Every structure is written in C-alpha cells, then in structure tokens.
Amino acid sequence: MPVFYDQLGRDVNLSSTPKRIISVVPSQTELLFYLGLNSEIIGITKYCVHPADKFMTTQKIGGTKQLDTAKIKALQPDLIVANKEENERCQIEELMTLCPVWISDISNLTGAIDMIERVGELVEKVAEATTLVNGITKRFNNLTIQQSGLRVAYFIWRKPYMVAGKNTFIDNMLQKCGLVNAFETGRYPEIDAGSLVKANPDVIFLSSEPYPFKEKHIGEFKGLLPTAVVKIVDGELFSWYGSRLLYAPGFFKKLSMELKSV
Question: DSSP characters for 30-99?
Fold first, then answer.
C-alpha cells in the first residue's frame, strides 16, 4: 500500500484497503457514505445525522469532542477519520495508538476539495471522489454573486455569544455569498451585546448549528440592533465541507437574492 498524507502533513500508513472505518466528523461521515462506503463504516458520532438511514443503523461512539474511546477500541477499526478543529487533540492522540488516524484541516473551499480528493485515494474511491469534486467545482464556478459590501455577524452559539471570525471555513463561505465578516479578530471569538452593537453589522445570521437557533431568538437580536436584518440560516450549508457542498451554491444564491433589498 502507498503512504498517504493527511492535511496536517502526517504520513498515514495502511497495510490494506480499510474495511472497518470510524468517522468522528459529521460532514466527513456523510462524505464517506456518499462515496459508497456502506458496509465499511462501523462507527459514527451522535452528531453524524446524515444520511438519516445510516445514522439510525450505525454504532454511535460518543460526540465529536467527547468520544467513547473504550467503545471505539472494542470496534477494532483499521482507520479513523478525524478533524483538527472538531475533535479533541488528546483523544485523537490516544486513538493514534490504536490504529491509523487521518486528520483533515480545512479553512476554505480549496481545503475542502483537497480533503475530498485525499479521502477518495485513502479509501480507494478515486473515481467517485473525482466526480463529486467536479460537481462541486462546477456549481461554485457558476455561482456569480456580486460583492454586496454588507457586513455580517454569523452566530454559532448563545450564552455566551460566539461568532465565526476570520480564517474559518464559515468565513470563506460568507465571502462566496458576497458578504463581509463584521468580526475580524479570532477564529470563533466570544462577544457580548456591547461588542455586537459596536460592530453594527448590516446582517445577523443565526446558524441552525451547533447552537440550534430558532425563530424565537430573532427578537433578542432585533432588540439590540433594530435596523439589522436577522435571519436563521442552515448551518450545515455554511460549515459542512463534504458532499453537502453540492447544495451550498444554490442556497447561497437564494440567500443573496433575499438580501438584495437591504
């Protein structure tokens, strides 16, 4: 078997094509199933909700940051697919003593495309990965959204308030929408109401995940910034960097049309 490299530059040695795979990142779990690895995936997290039928029938091994390492060891995987940001380093390092661990590190669309291609090679699904990459690339290339200059605050958490900052995958997707991030310091800075008012964004996006923002939360932000547009947005289409990227350009186009009157 050739030597594979993950996105941290680590060499990942496999003795054969992996047949017992555990994925500890929701978007990469969906990708692996999309590539056709149905019987090979033996463990996923409780947040790996897509595809829904596989979520119902595949063994759960904890949350992305609270992995059940004992359960993982009992499953005897021959490959674990993880992510630098979404998983806890100490847990992943422990799992490295068990079997090969391939780790992604993604902050933009280019990194997501690279991840899909590398994973395709890793699990011997090169043709399927290439077809997927071509589809995603074509749809993003056809996404023609003018830079609106609108400044946006993208909330990922409440109590405390947390937003997506610069150099994140979410920030890169906001740019694809023609928007400017109102928060430039830190990757996921914690802010207070005063900081939000001072930043004075034109638009506030309340993500459906990881915090499950709902319509009932809109009034809370309108109370702070009455003139801002406040919208609930699909967090999966802004932050999942696997096969779900096929649907992001269409969503971004619709969103940009809705914001044209701002």
Answer: HHHHHTT-SSSEEEB-TT---SHHHHHHSPB-EETTEE-HHHHHHH--SEEEEETTTS-HHHHHHHTTTS
Q: How far is CA 152 from CA 83, 88, 162, 208, 212, in A?
A: 27, 29, 13, 16, 19
Query: CB-based burial of residue 20 (10 Å sphere; 0-12 exposed, 13-18 middle, 19+ buried)?
Result: middle
Q: What are the tokens at 117?
A: 């291609």
Q: What digits encode the pLDDT tens for the residues 19-32?
A: 999 999 999 999 99
Token output for 262: 């701002």
The answer to whether residue 262 scores a pLDDT higher than 80 is no
C-alpha distances in angstroms, 17 versus 3, 13, 32, 35, 192? 12, 11, 14, 14, 49
**For residue 170, which amino acid is it?**
I
- C-alpha 159/C-alpha 248 separation (Å) is 28
Give the Cα-Cα-Cα angle 209, 172, 239 (nearest 5 degrees).
Answer: 20
Q: What is the pTM of this model?
A: 0.96
Closest CA to 48 of 64, 37, 66: 64
